[in-house]
Amino acid sequence: MNEQRKKKISKFISLVLRHKPEIINLNLDENGWTSVDELITKSKRDSYEGFTFEELEEMVETNDKKRFIFNEDKTRIRANQGHSIDIDLALKPQQPPEFLYHGTAEINRDSILEKGIEKRNRQHVHLSQDKETATKVGMRHGKPLILIIKTKEMFNDGIEFYLSENNVWLTDFVDAKYISN
């Protein structure tokens, strides 16, 4: 499967598993899981041609951001994080490393340094373990700005962190006092 096809499938799956399952009348359970068969069947609608199990499997396994995960027997699938719909990912609080990174666009600098980092329409603020990943995230929004987050201090102050299946650190809010750039 070519990269353009993989990207098209990934964007569609992101849309229905993270934001709008209702556009194909997809049923997600409280943890965001759905039947692979149902997803494949319902993806073949309107002008969207759908995809095969083999294409879905390849997209999940080769996705550089590891956005999606199958259950053990590959009969169910869900997004790892990034939901704007109410999903309980059943993540357990974990102690983060001393520092994590947040990639954004340089245009957001003043607002973030004043107000902090808000989750906005997502369930969590996303933080990266390395500058390279944060830079890639920031580049999607404009000229990248990499912020260093003092996560050990946050954790010591009672703020909870979670680690998603694809190693993205999640928290509810990052106060400006914990940010340096």
Q: Could you describe the 3D structure shown?
A:
- The chain has 181 residues and is of the alpha+beta class.
- The chain has two domains: 3-79, RNA 2'-phosphotransferase, Tpt1/KptA family, N-terminal domain (Arc Repressor Mutant, subunit A, Orthogonal Bundle), CATH 1.10.10; 100-180, ADP-ribosylation fold (Alpha-Beta Barrel).
- It is 31% helix and 19% strand.
- It has six helices and eleven strands.
- Strands 1-3-2 form a three-stranded antiparallel beta sheet.
- Strand 2 (68-70) and strand 3 (76-79) form a beta hairpin.
- Helix 1 (3-19) packs across helix 3.
- The termini are far apart.
- The model has no long low-confidence stretch (mean pLDDT 92).
